[in-house]
Amino acid sequence: MDFEISKKVEKLAPSGIRAFFDLVLGMKDVISLGVGEPDFVTPWHIREAAIYSLEQGMTSYTSNKGMPELRKQITHFLKNRYGLNYDWDEEVLITVGVSEGLDLAFRAILNPGDMVLVPEPNYVSYAPTVELAGGKAVILKTTIDNGFKIMPEQIEKGITKGVKAMMINYPCNPTGVSYTKAELSKIARIVKKHNLLVLSDEVYDELTYDFDHTPLSSIAGMKGRVLYFNGFSKSYAMTGFRVGYVCGPSKIVAAMTKIHQYTMLCVSITGQIAAIEALRHSHASVQEMKREYKRRRAYIVDALNGLGLDCHMPQGAFYVFPSVKKTGQNSMDFARDLLKKKKVALVPGVAFGSSCEGYVRISYASSYENLKEAIARIKNYLE
Ligand SMILES: Cc1ncc(COP(=O)(O)O)c(C=O)c1O
Fold first, then answer.
1. Whose C-alpha lies nearest to ligand 1, atom 7?
2. Residue 291's domain is classified under what CATH number?
3. I need a labelling partner for 64 at 20 to 30 A (CA). Which of 190, 269, 282, 373 fits?
């Protein structure tokens, strides 16, 4: 039988990262610096809380919006950490990672053809999720000349009739770029002037190394215009638990909850219990992981620049985004050839959009020893 697939889905290009990593599967002794997930296992006290909840027989559905205790813990955390005030019952929704949160948000706000500004390079799911929700992603390309940061003037130029919202992610996957409060205030000015809604993916907030992270919603006048996305995958090394959350205007959160209750029902209770424990007792483990990422960042940036692969110092997350232009190869050829000859896997920049040609993404969520060995192999390859 040949069943027809939805046109929207047929049009969708498969993830460039997946396509590349299909090549890695089945190869032996590969050092993979390609995946965007912590190499640490979830801290033991969090796993223990999850195990204990199972022993106690906690295996049911929860409230659609998420366990009240988790939503309360999140609002406490945001208040203490950033001075943010969200109502735990009206303005918070627990989602299956930031991924589900973004999908719900685009589906909740977009009518067919509505446009969303998406800075590039960006996390690979943004544009496809917008398109699946019936919207149109308008790509705003950033370059190394501005340190891969989106400039307020660029946003203003991008705002045409039909633009309803803007996506922002910082610290950024894949560049590691983040924004200071002063930079965010300039962006906020444009957002307010044009009455935009901003979806702010701050899933790497705890992994900001050189200055304090500032949530966009904490800038004066922005709370009512921002959907704040965060989760437990990165800072707490909890990717497999699949827990994230969104905070924002109650009307939008209620609309998102409507979709969530029909499509997902709720996030796994085990994940939610683990997340409560993470918020209560993980400060020390988060700081320890952060220290180690920072140590690796210093090493890898220095080593890549030493090899002649120009690499800016990222301010957060666990990625570096060096240029491979000097090799004369495009990013896909470089990545394929390096994999084949030296068994180091990294992600070709083109996976993040056409403007990222000439760059590769290297994740330093891999042991210091692995990074050293990878650098030795890259050096050998370049020679
Ligand atoms: C910027 C960004 N947002 C969202 C996600 C997905 O996070 P989650 O595991 O919370 O769905 C990732 C994962 O790599 C990411 O890099």
1. 98
2. 3.90.1150.10
3. 282
